[in-house]
């Protein structure tokens, strides 16, 4: 048994929990925040049989991988008080994952 | 030294912390929630000397074991707008527990 | 790679995260509370290369060590309804730290 501790960005949490639950992995969600100025994140605890560890890591990679998106939600101020949408590349997602050995596992 | 990570149902947290504290075990409580549609739970961190691990696991089992209770709080709607109490068996409790080896432990 | 799980008093969290971030360590903050009647604390997760473990532990010791302070914020009630400031030695700070081995570490 391994314990996977995954720190993921808030915007990927729903997708990731959905994907893991579909595959019958059990997930516990802890409230967490990054250090200063970092956007919100969530820490997930996932207990998993040794031989399924890589499968869980693949699901995390698939659901949370850092990717660039083009956003047009930002606006740029122009002289004369008009605003135009300003397309911009931003990076979202990303996860930090620790796999720890579990010496004993019980459910009561 | 071991670190016991116990995910327990909210309704058992007060009893469990009381029992562990009485026996001089130190408990840290993390806010946590289960995946979708699961009732509230709490994750506890318990640092323990190797030889006391099984004692803590027994306290967790005693305080959190899945059990059936008969509830009469539910009501059933009847024709004519009367309600009668409806006794029902429901399962409560349960805990998932991971024991992890601690390589180094310090208190400052 | 090691995972350092540090339970620190709330009043030391900002200083500790500042010190660790300055040294390029990455910190994740979990909401936590102690057992009954204990003041607020916070649990930090810090992933660290093996050879930097002792450096992180030194930063934690430096930022969180239990120390005595003299407070004059407390007041003592006197006959005739006057109050005088009452200097008092109180202990603050302190941390409990677990170092756990990480079998696999990925960032996606
Ligand atoms: Ni899906
Ligand atoms: Ni008791
Ligand atoms: Ni500094």
CATH top level class name of chain A = Alpha Beta
Oligomer: homotrimer
Q: What shape does the CA trace of chain A take?
A: elongated
Q: Roughly what is the average pLDDT of chain A, rounded to an integer?
A: 86
Ions and ligands: nickel (II) ion
Distance between the termini of chain A: 16 Å
Topology:
3 copies of one chain form a homotrimer.
Chain A: E1 2-9, H1 10-22, E2 26-34, E3 41-48, H2 53-64, E4 67-71, E5 75-77, E6 83-85, E7 88-92, E8 95-101, E9 104-107
Antiparallel strand pairs in A: 1-3, 1-8, 2-3, 4-7, 5-6
Helix pairs in contact in A: 1-2
The complex binds nickel (II) ion (3 copies).
One nickel (II) ion is lined by residues 18-19, 22 of chain B.
Provide structural commentary.
Three copies of one chain form a homotrimer. By secondary structure, chain A is of the alpha+beta class. Chain A is about 25% helix and about 50% strand. Chain A has a single domain (about 1-100), classed as Alpha-Beta Plaits. The first copy, chain A, has a four-stranded antiparallel beta sheet with strand order 2-3-1-8. In chain A, helix 1 (about 10-20) packs antiparallel against helix 2 (about 55-65). The radius of gyration of chain A is 18 Å and the shape is elongated. The interface of A and B includes residues 18, 102, 103 and 107 of A. Strand 9 of chain B pairs antiparallel with strand 8 of chain C, so a sheet runs across the interface. The site of one nickel (II) ion has 3 residues of chain A, from helix 1. One nickel (II) ion binds near residues 18, 19 and 22 of chain C.
